[in-house]
Write a structure and sequence with these properties.
This protein has about 130 residues and is an alpha/beta fold. It has one domain (about 5-125). About 30% of the residues lie in helices and about 20% in strands. It contains three helices and six strands, in the order E-E-E-E-E-H-H-E-H. The strands form two sheets. A three-stranded parallel sheet has the order 1-6-2, with helices on one face.
Length: about 130
Amino acid sequence: MSPVRIQRRRTKGWRKPEGAVYVGRPTRFGNPARIIPAGDHRNGLLVQWGTDGGVVGTWPADGLDARRYATELYRHWINQPEQADARRLFRALLHGRDLTCWCPLPAEGQPDHCHAAVLISLVNEEATS
């Protein structure tokens, strides 16, 4: 069975499935692109790279475009040549495992805008670097 992404929950009784790995912040697998409110929620969302406050864009408050952009930033970053060691490590640690994250799951047939979905594809593909 192929690995899947599971949305973490705070509901009473929810437990991470056995063998699944949490890949959000503050783990080594977390996406450096953060989505944060721009002032109040009516002002939209900001995408920030890392913790240094470097804002790379502003999006509407519904969050979909911000999640899409943050996911693409992660995909681009993790596939850079200087991340080859991280990719090898992530493959060794995550291959074949279900991954959990706080991002909402997509509607059926819609793309998954979450770095955990990027990781599932990355760590389960044929290693090239």
